[in-house]
Specification:
Helix content: under 10%
Radius of gyration: 16 Å
Number of strands: 19
Oligomer: single chain
Number of helices: 0
Order of helices and strands: EEEEEEEEEEEEEEEEEEE
Largest sheet: 6 strands, antiparallel
Strand content: over 45%
Strand order of the largest sheet: 2-3-4-11-6-9
Structural class: mainly beta
Shape: globular
Length: about 190
């Protein structure tokens, strides 16, 4: 059965360095902490320049969903600017990452433990037809428009920053309906 994850039910946890906060959307196993998860999906708000936490053995994808831009410096050398034209970055969790922001940004973050699973993150636009390709799929509404997700006999109305977690027992084909075009982030999790 699909699990609806309402943005209004998520709670922000402040970062230790004071530079932002994270709202955990989903984690597996459900009881896992930050050091024992197979995968974790979250929404992070960056309010000040500073370092990211290190996650050895983790593969990460980051996508800008709100704000003008964030500049990330990886391992003191490689600089990447995430903005509307280039919103996504993949990087290893053990990389030393330092963020510089001009104003507040919000980023969608996917982390998978590389010896247990992997992920694929992509941005799609509703309305769309979605064919499942993994045992677990998370859909996250990044755009302003409401999205109606229909699969089999299930139907869910999602607003901005709501998510829907589909497991192996859910329909293999879903329709994402929207009155206006809306950005949806799709995360496929492979074990």
């Amino acid at each position: 059965m699909a699990t609806f994850l309402a943005h209004e039910c998520l709670r922000a946890a402040p970062w230790k360095n004071g530079g932002g906060s994270t709202m955990e959307i989903a984690i597996f196993p459900p009881e896992a902490g930050l050091m024992a998860f197979d995968w974790r999906i979250s929404l992070a708000t960056i309010t000040a320049d500073g370092p990211f936490s290190s996650f050895p053995g983790i593969d990460r994808s980051l996508m800008l969903v709100d704000g003008d831009s964030v500049q990330l410096t990886l391992d003191g050398a490689r600089k990447v600017v995430l903005n509307a034209a280039q919103p996504m970055l993949w990087f290893p969790g053990e990389a030393a990452v330092h963020a510089q922001v001009k104003g507040v940004t919000t980023d969608f973050n996917v982390m998978t433990r590389r010896d247990r699973c992997r992920h694929q993150l992509e941005k799609i636009t509703a309305p769309a037809r979605l064919v499942r390709r993994s045992g677990m799929t998370l859909l996250f509404v990044a755009g302003d428009g409401a999205v109606l997700a229909r699969g089999g006999e299930q139907q869910f109305a999602l607003a901005r920053h709501d998510a829907l977690l589909l497991d192996a027992d859910d329909a293999q084909e879903w329709r994402l309906e929207a009155l206006q075009r809306s950005a949806v982030l799709r995360v496929d999790l492979f074990t």
